[in-house]
Amino acid sequence: MRIAVTGRQGQVVTAMIERGKQADVEIVAVGRPELDLADPTSIRRVLSAVKPDAIVSAAAYTAVDKAESEPELAFAINAKGPGVLAEVAAELNIPIVHLSTDYVFPGDKNGIYRENDATGPVSVYGQSKLAGEEAVAAGTPNHVILRTAWVYSPFGANFVKTMLRLAETRDALNVVADQHGTPTSALDIADAVIAIAKRLATNSDPKLRGTFHLTGSGEATWADFAEEIFVGLKEKSGKQISVKRITTQEYPTPAKRPANSRLSNDKLANTYGIILPDWKQSTTVVLDRLLGGTKG
To answer: Can you tell me whether residue 63 is helix, strand or coil?
Structure first.
C-alpha cells in the first residue's frame, strides 16, 4: 500500500515514515517546493504523479500565535489546501485522512468533548482548522477527520523538547496549570493513522468514515506534563527541575488557548478498536529516545 502524506519535516509525517516500514506500507512524503498547500495546481500535479492508495493530510500552518496576524495565510494552508486534497482524493477514488485539532472547540465545557459537541474556536488557528474540516467533508464523503491534541515526539519542535532545552540552563520553570488536555505522541498517531488508512482503502463501510478524536489515554495539565518530563530527566541524568504552577492569565499569548482540550476517544475505540497508550507511558518512550539510557 502507498500512502501520500503532506509535509516533509512535521512530527506526524516523520513518525509515519518510520512506522510505515514496520507496517509494510510505503509512505511518500509530499511537500514544498513540489507540493504547496497554498497552490491547488501543485497539489493535483504531485498527487496524480504519486498515484497513492490513500492521502493523509498532515501538513498545516501551526504557528498559533502568529496566525492572529496572518489569517489569510493560515486559512490558505489549513482550509483551502485540505479542501483541494479532498477533491483530488475524490477524483482518484481514494480515501483521505485529515488531521485536525482540539482548537476547534472553545474549551469552556466542564466535561470531556465528544465529536458531536458544538465547535467554536477562539483563535484564528482554530478557525482555520475548523474550516479545513468543513472543506474536507465537502470535498469527499470518503474521509476520516482526526482531532488530536498536544502533539510531541522525538522529532521537530514540541513541548517535550522545549522543556528539556530550558532545563539545560534553569533549575525551575513556570508552567501553566489551568489548561487541561492529553499529551499525544506522534509515534502513536502515526500507528493509528496507518491502521485507519489501511481499513479505509479496503472497506467501504460508511461507519468507518467521519470525524473521530485521537489522543493519548488519560489527562493532564501542561504543568503535569512538564513534571512528568522532569521525572524522566532526573532518572536519566540526575538533574532535578522544579515546576511552578501558574495560571493562563500569568502567561499571556496573542492567541487564546482552550482551557479544556480533553477529547473523548470512545468513538474511535468502538469503531476501529484503536486506543492509544496512556500519555505517561508514551512520554517515557519519547524521553528514552531523546535522552538515551538511564543514569549510571
So the answer is: coil
Range of the domain at 92: 2-157+184-217+261-277
Q: Which amino acid is at 168?
A: E
Decide the pairing of beta strands 172-176 and 210-213.
Answer: unpaired
Cell numbers 486506543 correspond to: 275
Three cell numbers, residue 225: 506534563
DSSP assignment string, 266-295: HHHHHHH---PPBHHHHHHHHHHHHH-SPP
Is residue 106 a contact partner of residue 121, using CB atoms and an 8 Å limit? yes
Question: Is 68 part of a structural domain of the chain?
Answer: yes
Residue 296 in this model has a pLDDT that exceeds 60: no
pLDDT at 292: 85
Give the integer Cα–Cα distance in Å for 252 and 234: 29
Q: For 242-283, write each residue's pLDDT tens digit.
A: 999 999 999 999 999 999 999 999 999 999 999 999 999 999
**CA-to-CA distance for 21 and 115, rounded, in angstroms?**
31
Q: Active-site residue numbers?
A: 125
Q: What share of the chain is helix, strand, coil (3-state, %, to 5)?
A: 45, 20, 35
The total domain count for the chain is 1
Measure the CA dihedral 184/185/187/191, to 10°: -20
Rounded to whole angstroms, how far apart are CA atoms 40 and 34? 11
What's the start-to-end Cα distance of the chain, in Å?
44
pLDDT digits (tens, 9 = 90+) for 183-192: 999 999 999 9
Rg, the chain, Cα only:
19
Bridge partners of 135, per DSSP, are: none
What is the β-pairing status of strands 172-176 and 242-246?
Answer: parallel
Q: What CATH code is carried by the domain that includes residue 80?
A: 3.40.50.720
Bridge partners (DSSP) listed for residue 3: 27, 54
pLDDT of residue 293: 59
